[in-house]
Amino acid sequence: MKRLFTLLVVTMMLGVASINCVKAQDQDTVAATDTTAVVDQAAAAEEVAEDAIEGTSAHQAIKQKFIEGGVGFMSAVILCLILGLAICVERILFLNLSSTNTKKLLAKIETALNEQGVEAAKEVCRNSRGPVASIFYQGLDRYDAGLDMVEKAVISYGGVQTGLLEKNLSWIALFIALAPMLGFLGTVIGMVQAFDSIKVAGDISPALVAGGISVALITTMAGLIVAMILQVFYNYFVSKIDSIVNDMEDASITLTDMLYKYNLKNK
After folding, report:
1. Where are the domains of the chain?
2. Range name among 46-55, 132-141, 186-195, 216-225 with the lowest pLDDT average
3. What 8-state DSSP symbol labels residue 204?
4. pTM score
5. How much is the pLDDT for 218?
6. CB of 179 closer than 8 Å to CB of 85
7. Based on CB atoms within 10 Å of each CB, which residue in 41, 72, 94, 140 is the most buried?
Protein backbone atom coordinates (compact mmCIF):
# COMPACT_ATOMS: atom_id res chain seq x y z
CA MET A 1 0.00 0.00 0.00
CA LYS A 2 2.79 2.42 0.90
CA ARG A 3 4.46 1.77 -2.43
CA LEU A 4 1.17 2.31 -4.24
CA PHE A 5 0.55 5.55 -2.37
CA THR A 6 4.09 6.74 -3.06
CA LEU A 7 3.71 5.93 -6.75
CA LEU A 8 0.41 7.85 -6.88
CA VAL A 9 1.96 10.93 -5.25
CA VAL A 10 4.90 10.88 -7.65
CA THR A 11 2.56 10.59 -10.61
CA MET A 12 0.48 13.58 -9.44
CA MET A 13 3.61 15.69 -8.96
CA LEU A 14 4.82 14.83 -12.46
CA GLY A 15 1.40 15.79 -13.91
CA VAL A 16 1.41 19.17 -12.15
CA ALA A 17 4.95 19.79 -13.39
CA SER A 18 3.91 18.94 -16.96
CA ILE A 19 0.94 21.31 -16.79
CA ASN A 20 3.18 24.11 -15.54
CA CYS A 21 5.64 23.45 -18.37
CA VAL A 22 2.84 23.59 -20.96
CA LYS A 23 1.54 26.87 -19.51
CA ALA A 24 5.03 28.33 -19.58
CA GLN A 25 5.46 27.27 -23.19
CA ASP A 26 2.09 28.84 -24.12
CA GLN A 27 3.08 32.09 -22.44
CA ASP A 28 6.38 32.09 -24.30
CA THR A 29 4.54 31.47 -27.58
CA VAL A 30 2.11 34.34 -26.92
CA ALA A 31 5.00 36.62 -25.99
CA ALA A 32 6.86 35.61 -29.15
CA THR A 33 3.74 36.23 -31.24
CA ASP A 34 3.26 39.66 -29.69
CA THR A 35 6.92 40.48 -30.31
CA THR A 36 6.59 39.38 -33.95
CA ALA A 37 3.45 41.52 -34.39
CA VAL A 38 5.21 44.53 -32.90
CA VAL A 39 8.18 43.97 -35.23
CA ASP A 40 5.86 43.66 -38.24
CA GLN A 41 4.02 46.87 -37.30
CA ALA A 42 7.33 48.67 -36.89
CA ALA A 43 8.49 47.41 -40.29
CA ALA A 44 5.21 48.50 -41.92
CA ALA A 45 5.47 51.92 -40.31
CA GLU A 46 9.05 52.21 -41.53
CA GLU A 47 7.97 51.32 -45.10
CA VAL A 48 5.19 53.92 -44.97
CA ALA A 49 7.66 56.51 -43.73
CA GLU A 50 10.10 55.60 -46.50
CA ASP A 51 7.33 55.88 -49.12
CA ALA A 52 6.35 59.28 -47.74
CA ILE A 53 9.97 60.39 -47.84
CA GLU A 54 10.32 59.15 -51.43
CA GLY A 55 7.09 60.91 -52.45
CA THR A 56 8.28 64.10 -50.82
CA SER A 57 11.65 63.73 -52.48
CA ALA A 58 10.04 63.29 -55.92
CA HIS A 59 7.85 66.33 -55.33
CA GLN A 60 10.84 68.36 -54.21
CA ALA A 61 12.85 67.17 -57.22
CA ILE A 62 10.13 68.24 -59.66
CA LYS A 63 9.80 71.57 -57.90
CA GLN A 64 13.58 72.07 -58.00
CA LYS A 65 13.73 71.27 -61.73
CA PHE A 66 10.86 73.68 -62.35
CA ILE A 67 12.77 76.46 -60.61
CA GLU A 68 16.03 75.57 -62.34
CA GLY A 69 14.39 75.68 -65.76
CA GLY A 70 13.28 79.24 -65.21
CA VAL A 71 9.91 80.19 -63.75
CA GLY A 72 8.90 82.28 -66.77
CA PHE A 73 9.36 79.71 -69.53
CA MET A 74 8.39 76.72 -67.37
CA SER A 75 5.16 78.49 -66.40
CA ALA A 76 4.38 79.10 -70.06
CA VAL A 77 4.95 75.41 -70.88
CA ILE A 78 2.79 74.28 -67.95
CA LEU A 79 0.09 76.73 -69.05
CA CYS A 80 0.07 75.09 -72.48
CA LEU A 81 -0.39 71.72 -70.80
CA ILE A 82 -3.25 72.93 -68.58
CA LEU A 83 -5.14 74.64 -71.40
CA GLY A 84 -4.55 71.70 -73.74
CA LEU A 85 -5.82 69.18 -71.19
CA ALA A 86 -8.89 71.33 -70.49
CA ILE A 87 -9.78 71.29 -74.19
CA CYS A 88 -9.07 67.54 -74.32
CA VAL A 89 -11.53 66.88 -71.50
CA GLU A 90 -14.20 68.94 -73.27
CA ARG A 91 -13.60 67.10 -76.56
CA ILE A 92 -13.70 63.69 -74.89
CA LEU A 93 -17.10 64.45 -73.36
CA PHE A 94 -18.48 65.92 -76.59
CA LEU A 95 -17.28 63.09 -78.83
CA ASN A 96 -18.50 60.39 -76.47
CA LEU A 97 -21.93 62.03 -76.38
CA SER A 98 -21.83 62.28 -80.19
CA SER A 99 -21.28 58.55 -80.61
CA THR A 100 -24.52 56.66 -81.23
CA ASN A 101 -25.61 53.23 -82.34
CA THR A 102 -26.36 54.11 -85.96
CA LYS A 103 -27.84 50.73 -86.88
CA LYS A 104 -30.27 50.84 -83.98
CA LEU A 105 -31.29 54.40 -84.85
CA LEU A 106 -31.87 53.48 -88.50
CA ALA A 107 -34.03 50.53 -87.45
CA LYS A 108 -36.19 52.79 -85.25
CA ILE A 109 -36.56 55.37 -88.03
CA GLU A 110 -37.46 52.74 -90.60
CA THR A 111 -40.09 51.22 -88.30
CA ALA A 112 -41.60 54.61 -87.48
CA LEU A 113 -41.51 55.66 -91.15
CA ASN A 114 -43.27 52.53 -92.40
CA GLU A 115 -45.85 52.42 -89.63
CA GLN A 116 -46.66 56.06 -88.85
CA GLY A 117 -45.00 58.21 -91.52
CA VAL A 118 -42.42 60.96 -91.73
CA GLU A 119 -43.56 62.85 -88.62
CA ALA A 120 -43.06 59.78 -86.44
CA ALA A 121 -39.57 59.32 -87.90
CA LYS A 122 -38.78 62.97 -87.15
CA GLU A 123 -39.94 62.45 -83.57
CA VAL A 124 -37.51 59.55 -83.22
CA CYS A 125 -34.70 61.85 -84.40
CA ARG A 126 -35.73 64.54 -81.92
CA ASN A 127 -35.49 62.08 -79.05
CA SER A 128 -32.05 60.80 -80.11
CA ARG A 129 -28.74 62.51 -79.43
CA GLY A 130 -25.75 62.84 -81.70
CA PRO A 131 -24.94 64.37 -85.09
CA VAL A 132 -26.41 61.43 -87.03
CA ALA A 133 -29.86 62.02 -85.56
CA SER A 134 -29.56 65.75 -86.29
CA ILE A 135 -28.67 65.06 -89.94
CA PHE A 136 -31.57 62.64 -90.27
CA TYR A 137 -33.96 65.22 -88.87
CA GLN A 138 -32.83 67.85 -91.37
CA GLY A 139 -33.30 65.40 -94.23
CA LEU A 140 -36.74 64.23 -93.05
CA ASP A 141 -37.84 67.82 -92.47
CA ARG A 142 -37.33 68.53 -96.20
CA TYR A 143 -39.02 65.38 -97.46
CA ASP A 144 -41.96 67.35 -98.88
CA ALA A 145 -39.55 69.36 -101.09
CA GLY A 146 -38.34 66.21 -102.84
CA LEU A 147 -35.54 63.72 -102.53
CA ASP A 148 -33.05 66.09 -104.17
CA MET A 149 -33.59 68.60 -101.36
CA VAL A 150 -33.24 65.81 -98.83
CA GLU A 151 -29.84 64.86 -100.24
CA LYS A 152 -28.66 68.48 -100.32
CA ALA A 153 -29.83 69.05 -96.73
CA VAL A 154 -28.09 65.90 -95.53
CA ILE A 155 -24.82 66.83 -97.25
CA SER A 156 -24.90 70.46 -96.08
CA TYR A 157 -25.79 69.67 -92.49
CA GLY A 158 -23.24 66.85 -92.48
CA GLY A 159 -20.55 69.44 -93.13
CA VAL A 160 -21.87 71.54 -90.24
CA GLN A 161 -21.77 68.58 -87.88
CA THR A 162 -18.25 67.68 -89.01
CA GLY A 163 -17.16 71.21 -88.18
CA LEU A 164 -18.65 70.86 -84.70
CA LEU A 165 -16.80 67.59 -84.19
CA GLU A 166 -13.49 69.19 -85.19
CA LYS A 167 -14.05 72.26 -83.02
CA ASN A 168 -11.07 73.32 -80.83
CA LEU A 169 -8.72 70.74 -82.38
CA SER A 170 -6.75 73.61 -83.89
CA TRP A 171 -6.04 74.88 -80.37
CA ILE A 172 -4.67 71.50 -79.32
CA ALA A 173 -2.45 71.50 -82.43
CA LEU A 174 -1.28 75.00 -81.48
CA PHE A 175 -0.27 73.90 -77.98
CA ILE A 176 1.49 70.83 -79.41
CA ALA A 177 3.63 73.11 -81.59
CA LEU A 178 3.98 75.93 -79.06
CA ALA A 179 5.19 73.92 -76.04
CA PRO A 180 8.42 72.64 -77.68
CA MET A 181 9.05 76.07 -79.20
CA LEU A 182 8.86 77.67 -75.77
CA GLY A 183 11.16 74.96 -74.47
CA PHE A 184 13.69 75.58 -77.25
CA LEU A 185 13.51 79.33 -76.64
CA GLY A 186 14.20 78.81 -72.95
CA THR A 187 17.12 76.56 -73.85
CA VAL A 188 18.63 79.15 -76.21
CA ILE A 189 18.29 81.88 -73.61
CA GLY A 190 19.84 79.58 -71.00
CA MET A 191 22.77 78.86 -73.31
CA VAL A 192 23.27 82.58 -73.88
CA GLN A 193 23.30 83.14 -70.12
CA ALA A 194 25.79 80.28 -69.67
CA PHE A 195 28.19 81.80 -72.20
CA ASP A 196 27.75 85.22 -70.58
CA SER A 197 28.79 83.63 -67.27
CA ILE A 198 31.85 82.17 -68.96
CA LYS A 199 32.68 85.60 -70.38
CA VAL A 200 32.36 87.25 -66.98
CA ALA A 201 34.42 84.54 -65.27
CA GLY A 202 37.09 84.78 -67.95
CA ASP A 203 37.65 81.05 -67.83
CA ILE A 204 35.97 78.06 -69.45
CA SER A 205 35.10 75.92 -66.47
CA PRO A 206 33.58 72.50 -67.30
CA ALA A 207 31.40 72.69 -64.21
CA LEU A 208 30.12 76.12 -65.20
CA VAL A 209 29.38 75.10 -68.79
CA ALA A 210 27.78 71.77 -67.85
CA GLY A 211 25.61 73.38 -65.19
CA GLY A 212 24.37 76.08 -67.54
CA ILE A 213 23.60 73.63 -70.34
CA SER A 214 21.77 71.18 -68.05
CA VAL A 215 19.59 73.96 -66.67
CA ALA A 216 18.90 75.26 -70.17
CA LEU A 217 17.82 71.84 -71.46
CA ILE A 218 15.18 71.43 -68.73
CA THR A 219 12.77 73.71 -70.59
CA THR A 220 13.22 71.71 -73.79
CA MET A 221 12.51 68.46 -71.93
CA ALA A 222 9.35 69.94 -70.37
CA GLY A 223 8.13 71.26 -73.72
CA LEU A 224 8.64 67.90 -75.43
CA ILE A 225 6.82 66.04 -72.63
CA VAL A 226 3.84 68.40 -72.92
CA ALA A 227 3.78 68.03 -76.70
CA MET A 228 3.85 64.22 -76.48
CA ILE A 229 0.97 64.13 -74.00
CA LEU A 230 -1.23 66.40 -76.11
CA GLN A 231 -0.25 64.58 -79.32
CA VAL A 232 -1.68 61.33 -77.96
CA PHE A 233 -5.03 63.02 -77.26
CA TYR A 234 -4.99 64.75 -80.65
CA ASN A 235 -4.51 61.50 -82.56
CA TYR A 236 -7.30 59.90 -80.51
CA PHE A 237 -9.66 62.75 -81.42
CA VAL A 238 -8.81 62.54 -85.11
CA SER A 239 -9.47 58.80 -85.12
CA LYS A 240 -12.74 59.23 -83.22
CA ILE A 241 -13.95 61.98 -85.56
CA ASP A 242 -13.11 59.92 -88.64
CA SER A 243 -15.15 57.04 -87.24
CA ILE A 244 -18.16 59.26 -86.51
CA VAL A 245 -17.98 60.93 -89.95
CA ASN A 246 -17.88 57.55 -91.69
CA ASP A 247 -20.95 56.46 -89.74
CA MET A 248 -22.68 59.70 -90.73
CA GLU A 249 -21.95 59.18 -94.43
CA ASP A 250 -23.03 55.54 -94.44
CA ALA A 251 -26.18 56.33 -92.50
CA SER A 252 -27.03 59.23 -94.81
CA ILE A 253 -26.90 56.93 -97.84
CA THR A 254 -29.11 54.41 -96.04
CA LEU A 255 -31.60 57.14 -95.12
CA THR A 256 -31.78 58.35 -98.71
CA ASP A 257 -32.51 54.81 -99.93
CA MET A 258 -35.09 54.40 -97.20
CA LEU A 259 -36.93 57.57 -98.21
CA TYR A 260 -36.74 56.58 -101.87
CA LYS A 261 -38.47 53.26 -101.12
CA TYR A 262 -41.01 55.03 -98.92
CA ASN A 263 -41.73 57.50 -101.73
CA LEU A 264 -42.30 54.68 -104.21
CA LYS A 265 -44.55 52.90 -101.74
CA ASN A 266 -46.82 55.93 -101.22
CA LYS A 267 -47.18 56.90 -104.90
Report:
1. 1-68, 72-265
2. 46-55
3. -
4. 0.68
5. 81
6. no
7. 140
